[in-house]
Specification:
InterPro entries: GntR_C, TF_FadR/GntR_C, Tscrpt_reg_HTH_GntR, WH-like_DNA-bd_sf, WH_DNA-bd_sf. By secondary structure, the protein is mainly alpha-helical. The protein has helices spanning 4-22, 33-40, 44-56, 77-91, 95-116, 119-134, 139-156, 160-175, 182-201, 204-216, 221-224, 235-251, and strands at residues 60-63, 69-72.
Length: 252
């Protein structure tokens, strides 16, 4: 006999294939539970387990009450960050692992942003970079704005995979608990202003080079605090940070 988890996984795959064939988009209702039970010929418990699997993946949102049910959703970078953090913890990944990955991806991301950004996105980057410099003496605010800047560049790149991966990497960097001095924060903020300017000008090469220089600048940690780059990524630390972020977003 096939166990319920395996049945539920197969139902979940079928639901998502059908959603793609129907051209369902974010916010669309997948259909009534009774319709799925009749069409698929499955038990109610297996169907509900399938939807719980999809909810855990961020692919659907299960709403209660009138007009509720399974609604198409978009997986969030926080979910990817949690999964990647677990992968890195098991494999012994460190902050160096995360920064090397960012140094590989983010220059290309900045180049794409320079080619594809909208005027509104360019303006948001310019304003964020300005606020970043002003917040250089306020560490918590600086780190929040720094993370937002990278999220904005990822969004402006127009690449869905990058827009999910880079915020996830930023969250993992933040969870390590490493600190930057005011002088380093000022240098990073000035670099960010240059990146924002290059993106606004549509200068893909300049945006790429400035982003590369900014990220590789973190290698200064080798001389300032060599051990910080070898700090391990722990899933619990990342997940705790993400949970706090989600609660703050709900409360706000």
């Amino acid at each position: 006999m096939v166990g319920q988890p395996k049945v539920a996984a197969e139902i979940a795959r079928r639901v998502m294939r059908e959603a793609a064939e129907r051209g369902l988009e974010l916010g669309d209702h997948l259909g009534a539970e009774s319709e799925f039970i009749e069409r698929y010929g499955v038990a109610r418990g297996s169907l509900r387990e399938a939807f719980r699997l999809l909810e855990a993946q961020g692919a659907v949102e299960l709403r209660r009450g009138a007009g509720g049910g399974a609604i198409m959703a978009r997986p969030q970078p926080t979910q990817l960050a949690s999964f990647l953090a677990m992968t890195l913890q098991i494999g012994g990944g460190t902050l160096r692992t995360v920064l090397e990955t960012r140094a590989t991806i983010e220059p290309s991301m900045a180049a794409l942003a320079a080619r594809r950004r909208t005027p509104e996105q360019a303006q948001a980057l310019t304003e964020c970079a300005k606020s970043l410099l002003e917040a250089r003496h306020d560490s918590p605010t600086f780190h929040a704005l720094n993370r937002r800047f990278h999220d904005l560049v990822a969004e402006a790149s127009g690449n869905l995979l990058i827009a999910a991966m880079l915020p996830a990497l930023s969250w993992m960097s933040s969870a390590i608990g490493w600190e930057l001095g005011p002088r380093v924060r000022k240098r990073i903020a000035l670099e960010k202003q240059g990146i924002a300017e290059a993106i606004d000008d549509g200068d893909s090469w300049g945006a790429s080079q400035r982003m590369s220089r900014m990220i590789m600048g973190y290698e200064d940690l080798n001389t300032a605090d060599a051990d910080v780059l070898e700090r391990p990524v722990a899933w619990a630390d990342v997940d705790e940070l993400l949970e706090k972020h989600l609660h703050e977003g709900t409360d706000g």
